Amino acid sequence: MVGERVVPRPERLERAGRGLRAQSQPRTQPQQGRPFFRSGVLRFTFRHARVTPDLAPRDRAQNSGKGDGPQLKADVTATKDTSSNRSQPAPVRESAGCLQGCRCARFSDKWKQLSRLQRNVILFVLGFLILCGFLYSLQVSDQWKALSGSRAEVEKMKLEVLPVLPAPQKESAEPEGFADILSQKRQRHLRRGPPHLQIRPPNTVSKDGMQDDAKEREAALGKAQQEENTQRTVISWRGAVIEPEQATEPPSKRAEASIKPLFLASRIWKEPAPPNERQKGVIEAFLHAWKGYQKFAWGHDELKPVSKTFSEWFGLGLTLIDALDTMWILGLKQEFKEARKWVSENLDFQKNVDVNLFESTIRILGGLLSAYHLSGDSLFLSKAEDFGNRLMPAFTTPSKIPYSDVNIGTGFAHSPQWTSDSTVAEVTSIQLEFRELSRLTGIKKFQEAVEEVTKHIHSLSGKKDGLVPMFINTNSGLFTHPGVFTLGARADSYYEYLLKQWIQGGKKETQLLEDYVRAIEGIKAHLLRQSQPRKLTFVGELAHGRFSAKMDHLVCFLPGTLALGVHHGLPADHMDLARALMETCYQMNQQMETGLSPEIAHFNMYPRADHKDVEVKPADRHNLLRPETVESLFYLYRVTKDRKYQDWGWEILQSFNKYTRVPSGGYSSINNVQNSHKPEPRDKMESFFVGETLKYLYLLFSDDLELLGLDTCVFNTEAHPLPIWSPA
Ligand code: DMJ
């Protein structure tokens, strides 16, 4: 479009000058009458400008003989003949004045010989040419102005697109004004104490910064740069110091550490005590899982341990990123270093690949942010920012409820092919990560986008006593398929993130708390029942008023979340429910022949002698190495200090080792938890086994309750710890 308005490029003029034939061709710019008219004028002008000055009488005679007006064909002839005239020698040498006079006289004679019509036509053509010349000069100046304006627009557009797909920032390419922003951020360190105590959300940073005087800012910058230099010369491994030459990446790669994080030190991590026996058991399990991943799936998404190969989902080394913080926590220094090297050298998000917004946020963005917080290595923050930017197009929907999928290479976001709905749990379980990304980078758009979603869902009707339906439309922003309520798939982490965001933000966002507490009341009112004969409390589902005694293993996150809420001051009866549900989740494991929970359990609600509490349908007998039971055991132990929860977790680890461990390396999900002789490996180790399941087991067994303490950090729904913004 811009190019079409800029007509007078040399090649365009040439094309126009080749003939008026072009005027009879169909218009290529029907909607742009003016530019089209202009190009027509140009063609006409050029053609006649060449002919008119040399109009010879012979030519005119020829022309006149063919009609009343200057025919196109005649024009061409005229041009040719004129040039041949030029090559003829002058017949007589005359003085300039005489020559001029004679020519004038001859011209006057010839002019008089012309018919009135011919004269009028010539005068008209001359007048027209002059007018065209004038218009042309105006047009050229306009178009050049437009050209420069358009270039500016293009540049502006490029800048606007940049945040979606930014090139990784290099140290040398630091934008102008960055130092200012930096000084504002760092100045806060100076004024408010060590970096790790800088807990205010980023949107106040620039405001505060503007109030500070320049001197203070300079001093802060100087000090911050000093800190920064120190930071660059060492890489800390859990308190140990590694000199730069020991670092895994070449110096050029170290430039990746160019983002100046707001929080250089991690306050969620402190040097742990040596691992106890059970923790050593988890380390051993992790190393076995990692052995398989390293050997057969390094840098790929998931290990297929039986076939000794891998599967791809996003093609982004999902397992490796999901496991970064686990390796750090388990003290696996060498493994962490190797994985860090892969991230530094091989993790490239400029890929034409669709990712699921939720899954990639909780695993990749969450994993990178946690790795950054634990290690203080800004490589991870730099990658997180890059990735976060690439996810942002997902929010460009009419309702601002994000699409489920986004292409991180092209920025094209969309719903699944069969619907324009998104899943409620997915759009409401990305907030911890995006909010934290904003806090660390000072870029507000991440936080704003996800909080818009939270606000919108808060205000929506269609809930049942705080319980939400499972789908929401990205166009209308309304719930769809209403009337079905579950704490399982598609709704689960909506509830989890209400509480966790409230905790993350320092317990100030009361709307989140209200929605959470209301939802728990909704669960109690509509979804809780007891099984027979053991009276296990379970959470069922409600579909259009009909209760179903079906509970996904996914629901086993709930006892842990309830206990976390109680730890942060919520009503004691939440803890009663947490304990009861924890018992149920344990029984979902314990009552199976393998000691591992099925994906979905059905509870028997009627007293019949031949029925157990937990029943499993053939299609639901699989176990995907999911974390929810051990996740809740971790919280229950932290809150109650009752060691039975540790024991239950230990039993589950033994079961994983017995029925899912693949000798050559790795663990596999299984098809049948009710067949201890033939559990049937499914040949897949999900990334959450190393990202979540083993991490929660390790933390569950920790004697130190402050190891990633509940008052210091909040775990995202993929078990990646993020700091709480202000002390409880
Ligand atoms: C994980 O990706 C997360 O825990 C998510 O919230 C639910 N599904 C898996 C684990 O089961």
TrEMBL record:
GO MF annotation terms: calcium ion binding; mannosyl-oligosaccharide 1,2-alpha-mannosidase activity
Subcellular location, in the record's words?
Endoplasmic reticulum membrane
Name the Gene Ontology biological process terms: carbohydrate metabolic process; ERAD pathway
Give the main localization category. endoplasmic reticulum
Q: What is its EC number?
A: 3.2.1.-
Q: Which Pfam families match?
A: Glyco_hydro_47
Co-factor requirement: Ca(2+)
Family the entry assigns: Belongs to the glycosyl hydrolase 47 family.
What is the protein's name according to its record? alpha-1,2-Mannosidase
Q: Which organism is it from?
A: Rattus norvegicus
**Name of the gene encoding the protein in the UniProt record:** Man1b1
